[in-house]
Amino acid sequence: MDSQQTHPKPPYAMIAILFVGAFVALLNNTLLNVALPTIMQEFDVQASVVQWLTTGYMLVNGILIPASAFFVQKYTNRKLFITAMSLFTLGTLLAILAPSFGILVAARMIQASGSAMMMPLLMNVMLAAFPVERRGTAMGIFGLVMITAPAIGPTLSGWVLEHSTWRTLFEIILPFSILTLTLAIFKLRNITPNRDMKIDILSLILSSIGFGGILYGFSTAGDKGFDAPIVYGTIIVGAIALVIFILRQLRLDDPMLEFRIYKHPMFALSSAISILLSIAMFSAMILTPLYVQTIRGISPFHSGLLMLPGAIAMGLMSPITGKLFDKYGARGMAIIGLTITVVTTYFLSTLDMSSSYYYIMMIYTIRMFGISLVMMPVMTNGLNQLPMAANPHGTAMNNTLQQISGAIGSALLITIMNKRMETKGAELAADAAQSGNTPTTPEGLAAMEQELISKAMLEGINYAFFVAMIFAVIALILSFFIKRVTAETTHKLTEEDQERDTETITTPK
């Protein structure tokens, strides 16, 4: 099979089934975040323990996503999707029935083992189904799923928790999971190329330790701090394992994850911009609700509602940016989008104790609009430079880096916020002591202490947003080096690519 072959008529019904599955899986990623305090109370566990519902989920994703390139090439898309959806459905059902916290964590990890395959599989089917000149529009629709589902999770979760229990969150997902699985069994067919290959067990172990260790270390750093042995210890072990993993992949003829795809300059550039953009995007998803709920005292539901217009803007813009990408390429869109992101992130770094709810909503929405102009066009431009045989490795790499950069960026900015908060809190306390205006009543002291904490946290949040703005500025500078990848340049495969495709790739019947 020619490595750049695509299907003359894309299988839209089949892609729709994959879309629903991916949407449900991604929605599930953020749906539980708002419910963590409620779950803490019901099972009587500490905050550091309840975090395993999100940390465990992320760890399984971090371990399985790098291996997705192997699974996508080894098994048919039909078999892989049905297996993934079955695991996700089983995990959802177990979560509804969970009698203890340990079983709930196990249920989330079973869910994660299914959802980890969804995005790489869907992206590979899209790349196989559409030619280069039409991929922008197709990937724009894909962006609708990737961006909107996680963004509406907190709002939906906040509304459900005001009217029902946390189990209802899983009960909402279960019917959609069963329906998607049923449709997949009867309607799904195979369109992605497969080849007979064996996984390198040592690579899988090194990948699991490397990505898992780094993800765990950074995800716990925001709570424990980077000076905690469990944090820097797991990061160091993970980094060493990851270096060994990469060196091993470069020596293997048939690697689990192909790092040689970085010889394609536009893919390498798109990865760098995507990493910086993920850090900037995920930071706002954490810092904005923190400001709104902790400093302003606004409910979780209204906090989620504040972020909803931004999610809607990104969802509406995804198909439009796809069409614009097909027509104009990624460079101009990335420059405009990142300029908007830089400016709006600066405004978020200047919040005060009385910033209007609707002002924050407007800035956040415009910021998400700017990000929507960048994310999918840049990612698609990079993937377009890869030969089709390398698509599974490209999508696996993108999804892995997004997980890693999101975790690292969030932990880094939360740590920066905490350190700045501690410094500012000490300064404010010292100033209050020197002024001699310290209240004498317990109520007055409590009120003063709460005011100092709020002011210190505001300073920490603003500073963290300023650091996020610096990441966005670096991404903006890199965007000026983007070059448009056309069908002609994509089809120029190396002799090695052509030989490998001819010898090993067969189309499943």
UniProtKB/TrEMBL annotation:
Membrane topology note: Multi-pass membrane protein
Keyword Transport applies: yes
S-adenosyl-L-methionine is among the record's keywords: no
UniProtKB keywords: Cell membrane, Membrane, Transmembrane, Transmembrane helix, Transport
Lineage: superkingdom: Bacteria
PROSITE patterns attached to this UniProt entry: MFS
Residue span, Major facilitator superfamily (MFS) profile domain: 14-487
Main location: membrane
Cellular location(s): Cell membrane
Pfam families hit by this protein: MFS_1 (PF07690)
Annotated transmembrane regions: 12-32, 52-72, 84-106, 112-132, 139-160, 172-189, 201-218, 230-247, 267-292, 332-351, 357-378, 463-482
Family according to the record: Belongs to the major facilitator superfamily. EmrB family.
Entry protein name: DHA2 family efflux MFS transporter permease subunit
Lineage, opening ranks: Bacteria, Bacillati, Bacillota, Bacilli, Bacillales
